[in-house]
Amino acid sequence: MSETHYDIIVAPIITEKSTFAAENNQVVFKVVDTATKPQVKEAVEALFKVKVKAVNTLNRKGKTKRFRGIKGKQSDVKKAVVTLEEGHSIDITTGL
C-alpha cells in the first residue's frame, strides 16, 4: 500500500443520500481536489481490496453562510461516487 492512496481519499461521506446509494453498490468518498478518476479507482481498489466498476466525480462549491452576523464560507469539496462490481462491498462504518 502506498502512502499516496491514503492522501487521495480523505474520508467517506455518510449521509442519507449516500446510504441509499449503498443499496446500488455505490460508495461516496470525499477526495482531494486534484484527484483524477483513475487515481481514485486505483486507491479504492488498493485500500479496500475490491473491484471498481466506475468512478463519477463532482465538485461542490462552498456556500456563503452567516453566523451571528459574521459572514463565512464553507470550503469547496470534491466527491467521488465509486460503483463497485457485483459481489464486492465496502463497510465504511468499520473504518480503515
Number of domains: 1
Strand content: 35-45%
Strand order of the largest sheet: 1-2-6-3
Q: What integer value in Å does the Rg equal? A: 15 Å
Total number of beta strands: 6
Enumerate how many helices there are, as a single number: 3
- Low-pLDDT ranges: none
CATH-assigned fold name:
Alpha-Beta Plaits
The sequence of SSEs as H and E is HEHEHEEEE
Mean pLDDT rating: 89
CATH superfamily: RRM (RNA recognition motif) domain
**What is the general shape?**
globular
CATH class: Alpha Beta
How do the helices and strands line up, and which of them pair or pack?
Layout: H1 3-8, E1 9-12, H2 16-22, E2 26-31, H3 37-48, E3 52-60, E4 64-67, E5 70-73, E6 77-84
Antiparallel strand pairs: 1-2, 2-6, 3-6, 4-5
Mind explaining what this structure looks like?
- By secondary structure, this protein is an alpha+beta fold.
- Helices cover 26% and strands 36% of the residues.
- The chain has a single domain, classed as RRM (RNA recognition motif) domain (Alpha-Beta Plaits, 2-Layer Sandwich), CATH 3.30.70.330.
- The chain has helices spanning 3-8, 16-22, 37-48; strands at 9-12, 26-31, 52-60, 64-67, 70-73, 77-84.
- The longest helix is centred in the middle third of the chain and has 12 residues, at 37-48.
- The radius of gyration is 15 Å and the shape is globular.
- The two termini are 13 Å apart.
